[in-house]
Design brief:
The chain is an alpha+beta fold. Helices cover 32% and strands 22% of the residues. The two termini are 54 Å apart.
Length: 730
């Protein structure tokens, strides 16, 4: 089955699509991952086999070379170690190569009969019989294990969790699952590279050719998604249905809040997430006890003969697509840099060309503040949209209710693909100040005609047709929402839009009357709010380290004092994590996604993670801590009545002055005390660090204590050339 051209899928309005029948026969799929894998180990190899498929070849990984081969028949000389749920992939670090396996997975629910799982526990299998250790290797392993342990990873053995229902409808289900996976959301794509290369007959990474295509490897390759997944069997107005919310986080330009901003040269933006809200009616396969393979076409059960209908709506979020950064300085508000917008135009073209190809028209909702420090980001976004349009014209519409304004940028005459970009600005904070969160619906009034025009996906599983899917409607546009972090404000708007589209779906199905809303069903509204609030927390924790702000409004529909206190707690926690804990997390993302490849040169001598700041700089926090401790002990310890007081008071005064000087030094030179990433330092970060260190080195009093030799960042000075020709606005 061939995939229809993008122009057909995207250029038409939903109602313009004639019904199309896509035959999906799940029982004849090939290349599905094995559900049960036994691991056998010997000093010379690891062997992976499926006990439920005894005739299938065994995957053998030779030790310590890491060469891959398929073995047919019984493999001698190895003993069974354990059973695993799947293979995440293989990764080469500095001294050794490791096979990462899933040792425990938790069922999360079914979608059309297909069980979804969450990764609970993993194990790293060393290819060396006696693993080697050095500080860098141990740090690499620690970073990866922590990342996997704290990441929400999901997979299915029989369902493509990385693709929306609409994209799945145009894919050939006989293709192996990993080949169908969306590359953006195939989270373990890099660590699966050795298996994929071996499958394609390429070198396995150590020089030995695989000797042609190896389709027998397909069932050992398991695509995993990073994000959020909740499946709820519920009902609205007495009609049973399955409510599903899936958020997929892109592996491209993955990172943490302040260490990953804006766009890169390849057109990838930070914190890009695709959220799909789905309802399934008459989903007998998921409700029955038969598991995968039973009732998969919805032709059995209590609603036999009724159509299994899938209705899905997709939204996206992503960082403002220009070159910008925020530099941590220990201040609560980082230092903002917006670099020349014109230089970001090629990257922005790549980004939006892909977005239009995948989603159709893009309605870009910008929620950053129009005043203060965020103003420059807003203006840069509008400038890049103007550059993308051929003949842009800007119109500012006053709203009858509010004195604030909407800014809309649309092309005067559609001439290029980028004229399918439509920009809407909404000053979220100003509109909703005074806890008037209901005023966010003013934005919905702006989006409503466009959402109705471009519709949502609707597909029907035809009973008795071996899983045939009739696509009755396509979603031909996407709403792309952003704020500064693409977290808190974005969450509120996306949940609001999700509720509106859900009500529209139910009206179109005849389950609600025109003008009714899904929120009138209180039980479902409670579920809906909490699922979306859970989604907000997952996306926020993945990027900022804490749950989302403003989730009391998402959960309850109002702002509360308890919610405000929770926001305060999350804000303080974010400050701590973003300044002192996110550096290692960013390193872990870079290792996992292949943005940093460990070198095996100079084993034991690099100490990449060692602190190379001048000793004086390193000593300041310890001096501060010691003096604060002495002040507390001296102030709280009981003294004898006849003890001499003035020496202690003098020492306390001296400690107080020293602590004050240390604290002032750290606050004034905060860039030196941020826990920066060690592996891929970005040019703005390097520049800020070196500028601050140079300032300290030339100080009349502190300079001699620091010296002129500073190694940290020295080897990265060449990276500063990447910013040549870029105008910086500060």
């Amino acid at each position: 089955m061939t995939k229809p051209p993008d122009s057909y899928r995207q250029a038409q309005l939903p109602d313009a699509h004639p019904p199309r029948l896509f035959a999906i026969n799940y029982s004849t799929m090939n290349g599905l991952p094995y559900r049960d894998i036994n691991v056998h180990s010997s000093p010379s190899h690891y062997a992976f086999s499926s006990p439920s498929s005894p005739s299938a070849p065994t995957l053998v990984v030779d030790r310590p070379s890491g060469d891959l081969r398929l073995h047919h028949g019984k493999l001698l000389g190895s003993k069974r170690v354990s059973s695993i749920a799947g293979i995440l992939g293989m990764i080469k670090l500095r001294l050794d190569k490791y096979i990462i396996v899933i040792t425990k997975a938790q069922p999360m629910g079914r979608i059309k009969g297909h069980m979804m799982y969450r990764v609970v526990a993993t194990e790293f299998l060393s290819l060396r019989e006696k693993p080697l250790h050095d500080p860098d290797e141990d740090n690499y392993l620690g970073l990866l294990k922590t990342l996997i342990k704290t990441s929400p990873l999901f997979f299915s053995y029989s369902f493509d969790i990385t693709n929306t229902f609409q994209r799945q409808a145009h894919l050939d289900p006989s293709t192996p699952l990993w080949k169908r996976a969306d590359d953006r959301f195939y989270w373990n794509r890099f660590v699966s590279s050795d298996l994929i290369d071996f499958r394609g007959g390429l070198s396995s990474g150590y020089g030995r050719n695989a000797g042609g295509h190896q389709p027998g490897v397909d069932p050992y390759i398991l695509p995993v998604m990073y994000g959020m997944l909740e499946i709820k069997n519920t009902s609205i107005k007495g009609t049973p249905l399955t409510f599903i919310l899936i958020t997929r986080r892109s592996r491209l330009k993955a990172g943490t809040r302040y260490f990953s901003r804006g766009i890169d040269e390849n057109g990838n933006v930070s914190n890009f997430n695709e959220t799909e809200q789905t309802i399934i009616l008459n989903d007998n396969a998921s409700g029955g006890p038969g598991g995968f393979g039973s009732n998969q076409n919805g032709a059995a059960g209590g609603n036999a003969g009724k159509e299994t209908q899938v209705l899905a709506y997709v939204q996206t979020r992503g960082s403002v697509p220009v070159y910008w950064a925020e530099i941590n300085t220990l201040k609560y508000t980082p230092k903002l840099q917006v670099r020349g917008v014109e230089n970001a135009l090629p990257a922005a073209k790549k980004h939006f060309a892909e977005q239009i190809r995948l989603y159709g028209d893009n309605w870009m909702v910008n929620l950053v503040n129009q005043k203060g420090r965020e103003q420059r980001v807003k203006e840069a976004y509008e400038q890049i949209v103007n550059l993308l349009h051929t003949s842009p014209s800007e119109n500012v519409q006053g709203d009858r209710i509010t004195s604030e304004k909407f800014h809309i940028i649309d092309p005067a005459n559609a001439q290029t693909v980028y004229d399918r970009l439509h920009y809407i600005y909404f000053d979220f904070h100003n509109e909703t100040k005074g806890l008037r969160w209901d005023r966010a619906k003013l934005l919905m009034n702006q989006l409503e005609p466009h959402v109705l025009k471009h519709g949502y996906f609707c597909g029907v599983d035809m009973p008795g047709d071996a899983g045939g899917v009739e696509v009755r409607r396509h979603q031909t546009a996407v709403v792309r929402t952003n704020c500064m972090d693409c977290l808190d404000r974005t969450n509120v708007v996306q949940s609001m839009l999700g509720r509106y589209v859900l009500s529209r779906m139910l009206i179109d199905l005849g389950l609600l009357h025109e003008g009714d809303s899904a929120e009138e069903d209180r039980a479902f509204e409670f579920l809906f709010r909490n699922v979306w609030a859970d989604n907000a927390d997952v996306v926020s924790k993945s990027y900022s380290g804490t749950g989302a702000l403003k989730t009391d409004f998402t959960r309850l529909g109002i702002r509360t004092k308890a919610g405000a206190l929770q926001d305060l707690n999350n804000s303080v926690t974010r400050y701590w994590l973003n300044n002192f804990r996110d550096g290692p997390r960013q390193d872990a993302f870079d290792l996992w996604t292949g943005n940093y490849l460990p070198s095996d040169a100079g084993i034991g001598g690099q100490l990449l993670f060692a602190d190379r700041r001048p000793l004086f700089i390193q000593s300041i926090p310890y001096l501060l801590t010691a003096n604060i401790f002495f002040i507390l002990v001296g102030s709280l310890t009981r003294r004898a009545p006849d003890a001499t007081v003035w020496p202690l008071r003098l020492l306390l005064l001296l400690s107080l002055v020293t602590a004050g000087l240390c604290a002032n030094f750290m606050w004034s030179h905060g860039t030196l005390y941020v826990n920066w990433p060690k592996l891929n330092r970005q040019p703005p970060q390097i520049e800020a660090f070196q500028e601050t260190l140079s300032k300290v080195s030339t100080h009349s009093v502190v300079g001699p204590l620091v010296g002129t030799r500073h190694e940290r960042g020295k080897s990265d000075a060449r990276l500063l050339g990447l910013e040549e020709g870029k105008k910086r606005i500060e």
